[in-house]
Design goal:
285 residues, alpha/beta, TIM Barrel, eight-stranded mixed β-barrel, two-stranded antiparallel sheet, 10 helices, 31% helix, EAL_sf, EAL domain-containing protein
Length: 285
């Protein structure tokens, strides 16, 4: 089965076919508009995706960063920060974070071609709450849906870039689960001063931070020079970045594309009869 000229993994087809439009007793359902939504303590969680573009070929998306949108049955909206702030205990935080990432993954499977990367944020509370084997539970979700782990990029919060001991531990765990890593930083000097620079796939830095430097382009070049394999993503661009040509430089922000839904128009049961092998997604409530 394919949608918008790209194939849907068989395991994902089976899981999608098992979903209903009723949230009663279910953590994940179809919405009336054809997107996948999550349900958490009276809140409905949906996905929007912002493109990450190559700085040279800015019409083509390299990947998309997923963000949540959250509303209750009365139409009241809450910010992602507010949603997570109302989830204080570590176990619930873990379930909520994984639910959000699973909703994003399902919507991404329905809405994109097979060569795009999916950037998924991990809440900082979860990073410090999990004591071992970061990424193992979500890797099971990725495998259960037949999605390629090579297309998943786990995006780590700013707080972790300043805690290098814990960062090294977390990176080792994610590498064991074959998941690429992006790290957000807010100080180029601090990052480059780390004695043994952590091996990450992407460094993300906001445009407003770069603009505090006399020569932002030289700062970007310094980040690229720190590791021959690392890619740099300049985020929160409200105007186009006056960049240079480099195959490892990417841009993100409202100037290049607003977060938007990738909505599927699949009807229910489009994939045929529900199968007993429908994959479980290891999500608690």
């Amino acid at each position: 089965m394919s949608y918008q000229n790209h194939p849907i993994p068989v395991k994902a087809q089976l899981f999608l076919n098992s979903l209903s439009k009723s949230p009663i007793g279910q953590a994940i359902t179809w919405s009336g508009s054809g997107e996948i939504v999550g349900h958490w303590r009276g809140w409905k969680i949906s996905s929007v995706f912002q493109p990450i573009l190559h700085s040279v070929h800015s019409v083509n998306a390299h990947g998309y960063e997923a963000f949540i949108r959250c509303v209750n049955s009365q139409g009241v909206k809450i910010t992602p920060r507010g949603l997570f702030a109302n989830t204080s205990d570590a176990e619930s935080l873990m379930h909520l974070d994984r639910l959000c990432r699973t909703v994003h993954l399902l919507n991404f499977i329905l809405g994109t071609s097979s060569d795009k990367k999916l950037f998924l944020n991990v809440h900082d509370g979860l990073i410090f709450a999990v004591v071992d084997n970061h990424g193992s539970a979500f890797r099971k979700v990725v495998d259960a849906l037949g999605f390629s782990s090579k297309r998943v990029v786990i995006e780590l919060p700013l707080e972790l870039s300043r805690n290098t001991n814990h960062l090294s531990f977390v990176l080792q765990n994610y590498r064991l689960n074959s998941l690429d890593i992006a790290i957000n930083i807010d100080s180029i000097e601090q990052w480059l001063s780390i004695p043994q620079l952590p091996k990450v796939s992407y460094i993300k830095i906001a445009r407003n931070i770069l603009d505090t430097y006399p020569n932002p382009v030289e700062q970007v070049k310094a980040l690229l020079a720190s590791d021959p394999d690392v890619k740099v993503v300049i985020t929160k661009n409200e105007t186009f970045f006056d960049s240079f040509e480099d195959s490892r430089l990417y841009t993100q922000g409202h100037s290049y594309g607003y977060p938007a839904q990738l909505v599927s128009d699949f009807p229910l049961n489009i994939f045929g009869q529900q199968d007993v092998t429908t994959p479980g997604l290891f999500i608690g409530g």
